[in-house]
Amino acid sequence: MNLAQLNQDYGLAGQVKILEGTGGWPYLEVANTQATALISLYGGQVLAFKPRNASRDLLFVSDNAYYQVGKAIKGGTPICWPWFGPDPQGLGRPNHGFARNRLWEIKRTEALPSGATQVVLGFGDAEDTRELWPYAFALEIEITVGNTLALALVSRNLSDRPFDITQALHTYFTVGDITQTTVLGLDGTTYIDKVDGGTVKPQSGPLAIAAEVDRIYQNVPAELVIEDKALNRQIRITSTGNQTAVVWNPWLDVSAKSGDLTDDAYQHFVCVETTNAADDVVTVPAQGEFRLAVTYAIAA
Question: Is 96 a catalytic residue?
Answer without folding.
Answer: no
